[in-house]
Amino acid sequence: MKTIKITLIALLTAFIAKAQEPLTLKEALNYALEHKAEAKQATLDIENSQYQIEEVRANALPRIDAEATLLNNVKIQEMPLTMGGQTQMIPFNLKWNSGISATASQVLFNQAVFMGLKAARTAKEFYIINKDLTDEQIIEKVASTYYQVYQTKAMLRTIETTIASTTKIKDIIENSHKNGLATQIDLDRTKVSLSNIKATRQKILNAIDLQENALKFFMGMDVNTPIVMPETTFNVDDSGLLAENRIENRTEIHLLEKQKDLLEYKRKSIVADYYPSLAAFGNFAYQGMGDKFPWGGSPADKVYWMNTSAVGLSLKIPIFSGFGTRAKVRQVDIEQRKVDVQINDTKQALALDFKNAQKSLENALITIDIQKDNVSLAKSILSNIQNNYTHGLATLTDLLNAENAYTEAENNYTTAMLDYKLAQIQLIKAQGELKSLVD
């Protein structure tokens, strides 16, 4: 019992330690690709496509069927027979009739079957590409939400620093007020400012909870699972400004091109209706009839058994279908032309996305530099005013305004960093390299 308790404690400790490990972006993405419902469904589609190939392949394999029958002719049909000027009603069958037969067939040539098999294999490739697109969509959502959580937590750290600084000022004014060196108005104004900052902190905490829940949902993780974000900073890289647009790498284009391939096989499958088809077949039948139950019976029991067999070829030559086949082919041609239009439109949209992402990245880098200088300047101003306030050379209003300005500058810098990371994600997506975030 003691050993079991020790084991349980060790497992619990390991679980808690694991739960408190920082969740990196790469870990979040890998978790999502493994657990998110859309990723699982896309994987199942690929598995199902293999069974579709086997189903089509079955049409090209031999087919064997067996059938057994047992009939009791309750009312035997009679036929009139005239002989010697007299007509008699002759029974057309016996009371019992039983038989067993087996039939085998093999397609020797059927263009539609061959085209169907190629189409099924192409469909599997389509589902594989669709899985890649689904993974990219998951990566984009998880990465964007991850950085939003990170940015909001950075704002939380800034507001907590401001709370600590304002609390220190409040304590100083409170002591000064007790000694008659500060007014009640200054103390009240400081308390109001501190309360407002704490209210802002609570709003940020609520936003973090909502964003973390959204992140867990996009990852396919239980919302009750605790996560910890790493204490690192965003890396800024301006190499994306020199990136080249590579539309040919985009999964969206590959998917549309594969869709066009599928339509081509669909067209060929319809055209195959113009081709003749050839099949071989063979059958064997064993039949017994009599006035008594036939199974186990013999001629002595007035039960008679006989067998038949045959082999042959079946050739089907289409001659005229009322132009139905031609109409079907033309419908597929229209679908192919529509895909061509969609491909061209998608290429234009992707080119626009690339340009916008690159421009957003450029603007974000400019904003980061500006906000970085603003933070440095606001921090310097706050330090000077704090020093002046201590020596009675600055008012409380100046001090509170300087604190608010520094907090706003920090938050603006954090927001600029988030805009940069979101633009970077869009640029990586525009280059068709979202999976590089996982590698």
Automatic annotation (TrEMBL):
GO terms for molecular function: efflux transmembrane transporter activity; porin activity. Residues 1-19 form the signal peptide. GO terms for cellular component: cell outer membrane; efflux pump complex. It is found in: Cell outer membrane. Belongs to the outer membrane factor (OMF) (TC 1.B.17) family. Keywords: Cell outer membrane, Membrane, Signal, Transmembrane, Transmembrane beta strand, Transport. Gene3D superfamilies: Outer membrane efflux proteins (OEP). It comes from the Bacteria. It holds the Pfam family OEP. This is Transporter. The lineage of its organism: Bacteria, Pseudomonadati, Bacteroidota, Flavobacteriia, Flavobacteriales. Its main location: membrane. InterPro entries: OMP_efflux (IPR003423), TolC-like (IPR051906).
